[in-house]
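PROTEIN DESIGN WORKSHEET
SECTION A - STRUCTURE
LENGTH: 485
TOKENS:
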């Protein structure tokens, strides 16, 4: 399609706009004739995206004659510089770029006799507040969180990092959606090669629209197999967490209409950390972090190991008193474990989707009632429910939702392997799980297990232990080895 540009004849521009835009059929598109001194003009905007008070001031200034009725507009830029001094203006001749600016919330002004249009930043997006995110609540600390407006999210970060080196580099992704994406980094701390890699990746994306925001972008940037449920990028809805990673040399990606930031590069240890650790005393924070570390193997292996020993090594399980009541058969144990695993997943899922007003009571009452009935109906046993409850608590203690979901998937896979293959099935399942974890891809080709591999003892110490604030921030950015740029 041939590139269309702004013409000097105003009527030609109006005709092209009517061809490209549903001005007469879409109720939210606004257009009107305007008269500026000796010139006819045409204004276009989107109802709800334009700030009415600001537009009123703009046109009041533009249409004032200052007592000179014979004034003529010979220099459009000079005229607007005199008349408008409180809003950002830009000038564009490419009609495609003008329409992209319009759909982003800007308003357009076409003036007869000039072959460039005026882009006025009169945006006022509808948005919710910056309340604390539900999935990353803290007992202490900041109570604000990202929302669906890109500019608001940038301001929340800028408020915490008042540095001249902070950059928000805007890009457009999607042939139809035209989604705004901002690459965020500190120029004096971030590796330039990483920023260049992110820029190239965004420019090379061939996608219609980022329908699911940051999640869609994550799957486009990191290609992985369906059998690997582990997250390849960390996401956060907390501005304080995002600011912390920026000062450590990471790159953030902000997507408009998405209340979260993507953090690059990523390692598995990042999903185990929590901002809660840094709002506690260093000893308490270290204790909570180590508990979180131990919860990962517990959430992954407790139920499969319980099934392995009780169903296939009954003598050992009786010796260790894993089951103290009437001993069920192998088939019954497998059925009990599968039922409990399904019920626990159902409770967690229904509670997460329920209103906050009912989710607590739903989980407690539902767990007590259905658990008791399952035992009475011999759909399960009290011991299986006990180990299932410990598994659920360990899973919920993992601060990253994506990691806890991945652990649940791996656990179900191990249970099925053990149920149908016994000890050999458990061994094969565990081997495949380890291989899946070890081959998790990351953006830029960095190691998913840094600083364990490549080994960096000092960096590993900072990840495992909550150090005092004076020592927590390294004097320089950690070197992670070479990525595949």
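SECTION B - SEQUENCE
RESIDUE ASSIGNMENT:
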């Amino acid at each position: 399609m041939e590139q269309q540009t702004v013409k000097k004849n105003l009527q030609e521009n109006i005709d092209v706009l009517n061809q490209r835009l549903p001005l007469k059929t879409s109720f939210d598109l606004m257009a009107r004739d305007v008269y500026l001194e000796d010139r006819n003009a045409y204004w276009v905007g989107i109802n709800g995206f334009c700030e009415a008070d600001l537009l009123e001031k703009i046109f009041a200034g533009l249409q004032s004659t200052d007592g000179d009725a014979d004034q003529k507009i010979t220099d459009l830029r000079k005229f607007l510089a005199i008349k408008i001094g409180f809003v950002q203006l830009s000038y564009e001749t490419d009609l495609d770029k003008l329409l992209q600016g319009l759909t982003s919330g800007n308003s357009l002004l076409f003036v007869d006799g000039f072959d460039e249009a005026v882009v006025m930043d009169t945006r006022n997006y509808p948005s919710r507040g910056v309340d604390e995110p539900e999935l990353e609540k803290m007992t202490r600390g900041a109570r604000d969180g990202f929302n669906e407006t890109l500019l608001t999210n940038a301001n929340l970060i800028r408020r915490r990092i008042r540095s001249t080196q902070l950059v928000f580099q805007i890009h457009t992704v999607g042939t139809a959606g035209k989604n705004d994406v901002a690459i965020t980094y500190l120029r004096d701390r971030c590796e330039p090669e990483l920023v260049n890699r992110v820029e190239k990746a965004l420019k090379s994306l061939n996608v219609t629209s980022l329908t699911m925001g940051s999640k869609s972008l994550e799957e486009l940037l990191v290609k992985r197999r369906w059998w690997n449920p582990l997250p390849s990028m960390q996401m956060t809805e907390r501005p304080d967490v995002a600011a912390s990673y920026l000062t450590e040399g990471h790159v953030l990606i902000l997507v408009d209409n998405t209340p979260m930031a993507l953090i690059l590069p990523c390692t598995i240890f990042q999903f185990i950390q929590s901002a809660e650790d840094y709002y506690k005393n260093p000893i308490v924070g270290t204790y909570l972090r180590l508990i979180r570390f131990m919860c990962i193997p517990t959430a992954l292996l407790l139920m499969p190991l319980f099934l392995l020993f009780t169903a296939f090594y009954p003598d050992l399980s009786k010796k260790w008193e894993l089951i103290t009541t009437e001993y069920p058969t192998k088939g019954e144990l497998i059925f009990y474990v599968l039922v409990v695993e399904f019920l626990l997943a159902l409770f967690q899922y229904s509670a997460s989707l329920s209103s906050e007003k009912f989710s607590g009571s739903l989980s407690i009452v539902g767990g007590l009632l259905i658990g008791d009935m399952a035992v009475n109906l011999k759909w399960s046993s009290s011991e299986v429910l006990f180990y299932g409850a410990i598994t659920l608590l360990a899973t919920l203690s993992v601060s990253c939702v994506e990691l806890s979901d991945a652990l649940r998937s791996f656990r179900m896979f191990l249970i099925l392997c053990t149920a149908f293959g016994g000890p050999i099935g458990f061994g094969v399942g565990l081997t495949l799980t380890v291989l899946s974890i070890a081959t998790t891809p990351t953006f830029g080709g960095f190691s998913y297990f840094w600083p364990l591999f490549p080994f960096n003892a000092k960096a590993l110490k900072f990840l495992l232990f909550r150090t005092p604030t004076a020592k927590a921030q390294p004097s320089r950015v950690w070197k992670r080895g070479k990525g595949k740029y």
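SECTION C - NOTES
The chain has three domains: 10-120, 134-266, 278-444.
DSSP finds 16 helices and ten strands in the chain.
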